[in-house]
């Protein structure tokens, strides 16, 4: 039996739960394979709407882009903001369409590392899957750090606006960063039953907040809008890089706002009809995110008064734009509070997804000796407790960048974007080179829809976007470079690579055999 046809039947034993029974499996009901390992399935507690809520709340594009304006404003100004979102939206759509086709065929919780395994040639399946799993896990953990970082910066900005003489020290920002992370940890550890309701609320909060902020800014700025030329044709380059490179660096803000659209795939064991619903959620989240963020960005640019002040403001660019639009400290603070709540919802949602990725990857022995702890659930709390703790510890370590770098936010955002895009690139590249064989001509694959003849163009274009942006995002955001302005993401990514390689050669090469219980998991996903 060749590798492609054997994939669906891959199982570490003859016990494969019947389709009629697998959906009844809960956290406290464990399957055991022939090696004695517990196979844990999570309860379906997320509806389609709550899954869309968690996906949109995590993507949260309009707030994510608004809260990271300091990344883009020196790297092209309004041109990079307006047209950069368009470029990033096209890139994100190419990626999400490529991955959605694979997800429809293989609705598996591991997402990128599962897909790498089922699409790769037999000799490369395990190492490519292992690498994709590490990049996905590390990228999502870094994304928790991004959201905690943005929440901390927004609070510092609110204090700075109310007290202009206040100047936050790095350690104060770090403590706020830890505080937001701790709250997200507590919710995920002790309040899992209310998370679906929180995600639904976060979705409605984000959509409602989007309209409230837009209407308030336009109403308060009535008669004092910036001219259209300043919005659509003003170029600002304060990076020291050539204009072309500055524009690409400015894409980091919009790419970040559209990254992590794979959230739904990692909740597959907890949502109904995942083979249909997960791709729908992924594509819908990107479409909503790109459209709302572009509209929001254009409105902000029309309502600001002084771009130079916005770039250099101690409050951060977003709060300064709100203040220029409303000319009122209380009004600006209320508007940014909407963003703060939305970003915190994203923070706890990202921790939910990140812990699920760690849990599932560890269940397949992807994280070395630690897997035996990380791949289990707490018998009372009914959550992957050690996976949550593991993710939180690494977020705290990641946040130490704040104590030594003046561009910590750039480094943290770059780290999450680069590692997640690498994880996307692996299955997309395999689809580009092998899609016709393993998707179109594989009788064991149930394709609900296909890119068909467009696959080489779509996946090839997505790969070009991933390669160009991922490489450029490793560069410092500005020249000349000093110790405090260095983009330490290259160090972070290198450390993750080294840890991945070390784990593979010391443990993974012997013990990692790819995703376990594939037939059972596919039956579970396709049964409802």
From TrEMBL:
Cross-referenced InterPro entries: AA/rel_permease1
Transmembrane segments: 46-65, 85-108, 115-134, 140-162, 174-195, 201-220, 241-261, 281-302, 337-359, 380-403, 409-433, 454-476, 488-506
Topology of the protein relative to the lipid bilayer: Multi-pass membrane protein
Location of the protein in the cell: Membrane
GO molecular function list: transmembrane transporter activity
Record keyword Magnesium present: no
First and last residue of the signal peptide: none
Protein name: Choline transporter
